Amino acid sequence: MDALIEKTTREDQRIAKGSVNLFKKLSRSLGSSKKVVEISFPESDEPLRLPAKVIAMMAEILSGMSVGRSVAVIQTEMEVSTQEAADFLEVSRPHVVRLLEKGEIPFTKAGTHRRIKISDLIAYQKTLKATRRKQLKFLAKQAQDLKLDY
């Protein structure tokens, strides 16, 4: 995936920490009422017009960077290979192929190569996390009911 950026440096982290609260505050104050935001730069005579959603996105990016995480911005319609999908899900490529063949994740074929939309991977990942959370709650309740001291 060529959407990944360089690793967040300590300097990036320091700068992000100084800006993250302002962007979060701006994002909350804009809410859904404003559709366009204008930002002025000293080097330019005309303001930069941006969708208001960009402020919320910037708040998320800065939030991650402020704690030292690297951040990737990926177009949801972007398609990836099975190996890239495996890297994204942190599983093996053969496991991804099995998921595709079982129909758990939609895919298309370009010749003999399988291509998977990032949006479909994210949807699968969310479903998987929700299922895991539900099962863990069930196990925790079962352990409490059986007084297993967990």
Automatic annotation (TrEMBL):
- Organism per entry: Dinghuibacter silviterrae
Q: What is this protein called?
A: Excisionase family DNA binding protein
Give the matching Pfam families.
Answer: HTH_17
Domain Helix-turn-helix spans what residues?
Answer: 81-126
Superkingdom, taxonomy of origin = Bacteria
* GO molecular function annotations of the record: DNA binding
InterPro entries documented for this protein: HTH_17, SinI_DNA-bd
